[in-house]
Structure formats: C-alpha cells, structure tokens
Protein 1
Amino acid sequence: RLDPSCDSDLLATILGRMHEIEPSGTFSGELLFGVIDEVVEIVRRPPRPPSKEEVIGAWGEMHLLHLFLAGSNSADDKIKVLSCWESDGAARDIIDFRFSYASGGTSIEVKTSTSERTHHINGISQVTVPDGYANGLLGSLIIAETDGSSGKTACDLLADLRALVPDSDERFDEFRDSLGSKVSIRGPECSDERYFFSAREGSLRLIPVASVPKPTIGVGITEVEWVADVSGCLEIDATGAASLLSSISSP
C-alpha cells in the first residue's frame, strides 16, 4: 500500500536493490533501512570546507604553537607545552592557550588578521585573566597571504609541528597522538591546503588583556561580541616577550 505522494519508480529501484541482496524475496525492515542508508550516503553533501577566516585563525594558533614547541629542549617538554593548546578537555576552549606553569600562570588568546590589528572578540571571557592565573594576553598576529611560491598552508604548518619530535624518539608516538587529538578538537581548518600565508618577524604583539578595548556592559546583559582595534594598545616589550617565551617553552 503506497501513499499517493510516494515515488513508485524510486521505490521500485529500492526494492530491486533489496532483491539483489536477498534473492528469496523475504525482506526485512533491517534490509530496507540498510538500502535506504546506502542511498542517503550516495547523495549526502560533502561537508562544507572551512572558510578562509577559519583557516587564518587556525594558522595563527599553529604558528605560535610552533614557536613555543621549537624552543623546548625535550619531547617531554613539547608534550607538556602541546597539552596547553585547547586545554579544556574534548571541546574547544574559549582561550587558545593556558600555560598554568609559566610566569605564575599565563593565558594567551590568539587573534590573526591579514590586514589591520582589528580583531573579533567572541566574549568577555576571551580577554579576561582566568582564575588562578597571573597573566592574560592577547596575541595579535598579522600574516600575509601569498601566491604559493612562498609561505605555508595550514597543512604545511601541521607537518612542521609533527617533525619537531623525530620518529626515533621514544615519546614520538605520544606526541603524535596528542597533536592529532588537539587538531581533531580544533577542526579541519588545521589541515587546509588551499591558502598560503607567511608571518614576518615582528608581526606578533603580545598585549595584556586589560589593555584590550571593551564595550560597556549594561544591566541584564550577560555576554557580548565585538570588534576591537588593538593597534594602539600597549604591548609587552621584546625583553618581556622573550622571557615569557622561554618560560613557556621550558615547563
């Protein structure tokens, strides 16, 4: 018995496929659903690729992560540094890096742009020093898109991160698995191969979150998002930044 709206030709095709699988003609609900699942899988749309803005954000985080890891002396130190990226368990963290051991506790939220130091802030928590931490920083990074003859894709950066621990090291498997887990949390933009970027020396500024412009929040408003121009904000000087990098890279 068919509902009048049923496509009889489509049903015949499904029944034909069921008969191929079960020539006896004894069909079960399980077989029907299995064939329908095959059809759904055939016509399922591929997942939406990450936007360029999403790739830029992940590229900036991995660029900083490479700086932190490259300064570490051992695989043990690199694994500990890596654990501080997206450190809120199995889900994305509101703050990109939480280094509980560095300079009394240091958090860094990375914002990356290809033009000016104008960044989208996703909430007050991104520019608030976390409880138990002495320092909260916004890492403002300016990168340039290239034509592919120079620069690196996010996938290239990911390969560079994997190569920081040689496969001959006894902790290589642990490092590789930990990196894979972090990338899985961060998303497919970490493996993107479409866009090439480069970061020049001096393109990173570490700005105390207290200096980041914030909107006035009225009574009854619990959360906001806004765009902040941090080009005029005070930043940590070169000596302070070098000291902080050393404390992060050497847990």
Protein 2
Amino acid sequence: MISDLGRVLGKYGFIVYSAPYSLREIDCIVEKDDFFVLVQICKTCDMKDLEQVLIGAKKYKETENIEPNALVIFSYTGEIHHEVLDEAKKKGIIVENNIRKLAKRLLALTKERKNTQ
C-alpha cells in the first residue's frame, strides 16, 4: 500500500516513505516542501488506529523535533468505523480511502500553509 501511495502522491510532488522502526505506530510519512504528514494504513479502521496515529505524532515530534502538519488514517478497503470518523473530525485527522482524493486534500493543505506564511 505504501508503494501505491508513493506512486500516486508522487505525481503531485509528494515523497512517501516507510516510517522508521522507532515510529512503528505509523506506517508511512508523506513529505513535500517541509510539509509532513503521518499516515496510519488499515484494512478496517477502528479506534485503535486513531490512537496509534496520535501516539505516532507525539513520538515523531519528540524524536524528529518536527510537528506533523497533518495526520491521516487511510483505509485500503473503505471500511471505517463510524466512531473513528466522528473522533477524527474532532481532532482534525484526515480519514480517507481514495488515494487521489487524499492527494487533493493534501495539496489543498500545502497551498493553505503557503498562503499563511
């Protein structure tokens, strides 16, 4: 799945790579022009996946000294528990199951960031 994300997001200028072992709570990192996104990939996304991406974000900030610009929970089957959608929305976490839609959302966020700098 990481290679699929990399192939599609790469067309939009993003670099996708596996998270280091020290950040095993997340699956991959998406990067573009100092814009960092942490991604948790799941088959059936549940609250455990949401907790993992939050823990991963905290560890990433501690170990890399970088505040992630966005957190993503990506379901490759489209199966996402409703409570995950509700809680993710409250916490500002992107939940997606379509790579192209994810790319458009991340592009919009990078443009917003550039406009506010």
Protein 3
Amino acid sequence: MATYKGTSLGYIRSETQTKASNLFNTPLPGSDSDQVIVLDLFGMTRTISISGVITGALATLQTFIATMEGYANGQQTIGVFVSNIHATNKNCYIQNFSYTYSTESPSILNYTLDLIEASA
C-alpha cells in the first residue's frame, strides 16, 4: 500500500517518477549539436506525481485533506514515501497537493500529489 508519512494514499490510479538532470549546456557559435559543451554541475532531481482516489464517508475524505494540507504547511519536514511500484522508499517534500470532490460521488475524493525527493 502506498503511503506518505504513514498516511495511506488509497487507490493509486497512476504514479509517475521522473529523474531528470539539470545539465548546464553551452552551444558553440557556428557549430552543430554534437559540439555542445555539457557539464553536469547541478546533479539530478526526482519528482514523483501520484493520481489517486480516497473513498469513504465525508469525514474520512475531510480527514485525508486536513492531513495532507497539514503536511504541506509552509514549514514542511521531510516525509517517507512508500510506493506500490518502486522497491525503494523515498524521502520527499510535497510540492503540490490538489483534490477534486463532486457531490455526484459524495464518497469519492480524487487527488494529485507531487513530491520532490530530497536528502533526509
């Protein structure tokens, strides 16, 4: 079961992990792309994007929202993300948390959670 800081993330519709470099590159005037100077000065970053669903009574949905917004409070501490698919747990901060609630489906909360991996 996927969790963040021990909080269940419910049913995960999708999980996307992107590991990207922040390469410094300088093209040379009058040269083609095979002549670009590339330096790995800024290292790698990993972002994790989760699309999930929480189901239950309205109080359950409200508790999940309050918990996630409590984690992303402007004075965050690092949290452990446990993935359903990735074998290694990741230390992360919340970059974005958003949710959609519809009275047409009062027991369903759709949400997205974007995390950034960081040093513990």
